[in-house]
Design a protein that fits this description.
alpha/beta, three-stranded parallel sheet, 5 strands, 19% strand, 33% helix, 3 helices, two-stranded antiparallel ribbon
Length: 108
């Protein structure tokens, strides 16, 4: 337990994660986590930024558990950019973004 707590504290320090947020270490691959994220955190509504194939899979899984708001998408240009200027609704349970789209080669 001490190792996990130290790792969580280091993540918070290095990434400047504000109070009130948690660092989670979870097993499984990306596809498993798309399902598990929604299963555990989606009570009513979640916001997703559609950045490509992985984001589309995450959106599909989340729709099984509640309302999904797509706040932006780069589908219009075959996912060759990360959308900007989107607004995250205040009433969502969480916001999901795939920051490294390995299939289309875009990343933040």
């Amino acid at each position: 337990i001490a190792v996990v707590e130290e790792a969580q504290n280091l993540f918070k320090e290095l990434l400047k994660i504000p109070e009130g947020y948690s660092v989670l270490f979870v097993g499984g691959g990306a596809s498993t986590q798309f399902l598990m994220l929604a299963y555990n955190l989606l009570n009513k509504k979640a916001a997703y930024l559609n950045t490509g194939a992985w984001a589309k899979k995450a959106i599909k899984e989340a729709k099984l558990f509640g309302e999904v708001v797509e706040v932006g998408s780069s589908a219009d240009k075959n996912y060759n950019y990360i959308p900007k200027g989107y607004e995250i609704p205040e009433d969502v349970d969480y916001f999901h973004i795939t920051t490294n789209n390995t299939i289309y080669g875009t990343e933040i």
